[in-house]
Amino acid sequence: MKLNYRRTVLIGLAFLSISGFWQIYDSIIPLMLQNTFHLGETLTGTLMAMDNVLAIFLLPLFGLLSDKADTRIGKRMPFIVGGTLFAVTFLMILPIADSEENLILFLVIMFALLLSMGLYRSPAVALMPDLTPNRLRSKANAIINLMGAVGGVYALLMIKFLVGPGKRPDYFPLFVSIGGLMFVAVAVLFFAIREKKVAALVEAEVEAYEAESGEIIDAAVGETKEDVAKEAMPKDVKRSMVFLLASIFLWFAAYNAVTTAFSRYTGVVWNMEGGGFADCLMVATVAAILSYIPIGSIASRIGRKKTIMGGIVVMSACYFAAIFAGTYHPAINIAFALIGIGWAAINVNSYPMIVEMSRGNDIGKSTGTYYTFSMAAQIFTPILSGFLLESISYRTLFPYAFLFSAAAFLTMMQVRHGDSKPVKKKAALENFDLDD
């Protein structure tokens, strides 16, 4: 049975819109909070952590509600369409509140915007497995992630070309470009993918294939009931799990500190103006995309743990080198390309290690724990790094990232399980299969 690429690309439009939004949110909102409303680093970091705090509660809630929904246009589509319309509306108000220097309106709209995004992220991600047979979801998820990367690159290009010089440029054209992307992407999704009709079509395709081949295509693969029976996780495996989760927290703390504060750091330390900082982030994103396939090949040869540790070493070295960069130089783009490659090496292999250690136990619970630790880091790090930026110096950013990344290397050294060498993918595209 073959994947329907056209249908999967269309489904990925929802994740494209989400990724485009979060790219400008993380880059531009801190600049507004500081340059317009003159908030300190600590308070700015605290406000920037709110999306992750809300996500811990909103993502499972709206995912569950969409599971139980049954409307004329489907289970997921009401949340996707409604959430997008609300989000685009509030997104257009945000730069108006910024231009009028109305802090109360800005914060109220920002909170409403985060609620709107929380409304449809889980349903948007769930749409792909709803409309894709089980055994094709790995390849489909690769396409979804690539669509998300396209959304992120688009947002960075818009930042580069639409954000003018000065501390308080007019952000309205940028927000219109992102709102337009979100609206058009989800409108095309809605009219091209009739959720109930496609779900029935997929079910018919699966039944026809099973009748012709005698193969059960939409069932769990490779394990019997005895294999997945719940049993206590051995102590040595549990120890590895704890150290791996600690590593996840630490490398997310390092990376998120840089991505959240970088737009401000470049203005204060490197005296960059406008959207020029987006070049570095775009280089990192593109390098990560291009490195997924080689990293998958490397991990199949040397194992997941060594690949992850190599990624940590590369990222730590780049963070350390950035400490000594007093001004912007084009060579910095090389460092950010390496950071993107290192980050891809970590993300491609860390979640499969969690799954590997969870075999025979509650894999779903362990997956939830993975996201809990990554989100907890993204709540914690903007606050602590923001406090250091404000109370000591902006130059603490890269030492902060280096120390947390180096700590992740030390904890990762203690991980002894989950390192089975992955089977090489049959299709190159499957190397893009990452967690969302």
UniProtKB/TrEMBL annotation:
Keyword Transmembrane attached: yes
Membrane topology: Multi-pass membrane protein
InterPro entries: MFS (IPR011701), MFS_dom (IPR020846), MFS_trans_sf (IPR036259)
Annotated localization: Cell membrane
Keyword Transmembrane helix: yes
Domain Major facilitator superfamily (MFS) profile span(s) in chain numbering: 1-419
UniProt cross-references to PROSITE patterns, sorted A to Z: MFS
Main location: membrane
SUPFAM superfamilies tied to this protein: MFS general substrate transporter (SSF103473)
Top-level lineage group: Bacteria
Keyword entries, A-Z: Membrane, Transmembrane, Transmembrane helix, Transport
Segments crossing the lipid bilayer: 7-25, 45-65, 77-97, 103-120, 140-159, 171-193, 242-262, 274-295, 370-391, 397-415
Pfam families according to UniProt: MFS_1
Name under which the protein is recorded: MFS transporter
